[in-house]
Amino acid sequence: MAKAVLPPLPYGYNALEPWIDEQTMHLHHDKHHQAYLDNLLKAITGTEFENVDPAKLLSDLVKIPEKIRGIVRNHGGGFVNHSLFWEVMAPKAGGTPTGDLAKALDKAFGGFEAFKEKFAAAAAGQFGSGWAWLVVKHDGSLALYNLPNQDSPLSSGDHPVLGLDVWEHAYYLKYQNRRAEYIANWWNVINWDKVAELYKAARK
Questions:
Q1: Is residue 137 part of a domain?
Q2: Of 4, 106, 139, 174, which has the maximum CB count within 10 A?
Q3: How far apart are CA 73 and CA 62, in angstroms?
Q4: pLDDT digits (tens, 9 = 90+) for 176-192
């Protein structure tokens, strides 16, 4: 495949207002996400990994030479994680999931509200920078956990279907140190149709 490129936002920079502000979206997508991609490409250009899907690199880190493994893990993770993050949000979204995803959340967590509480706790409980993740395990079941920095669930063999960025650059301009408020408001922009699509694909 061709070299990875920065995916455009699937909506306007101000489309997630008032929950996520326009200035943050500009900086987060155009500066932070771009920097992760630039640093990843700098490390793999001229190697056998140059045209490999970054998600595939993350799923098999042991094959990456040690001298660039940390860069691939951190910056490749940052690129892939953010590429998913933009997709699982949408304007005029939120609400509750339906269909097979809703049933799976009920089975795994005892209902949607219980899932929200556990996910929010994982996001709030991540010390320092990192992410909270809802993933599909190898047996098709759902699990949630947090990971530090830009570590990806792909590196553990899991398929991420929903992720929340709790790095300060994701929320500090609007929320300052109020991470809990950012987490609570984020439920208003989740694109459950996309999450359900990712869930279905991961179970194939």
A1: yes
A2: 4
A3: 10
A4: 999 999 999 999 999 99
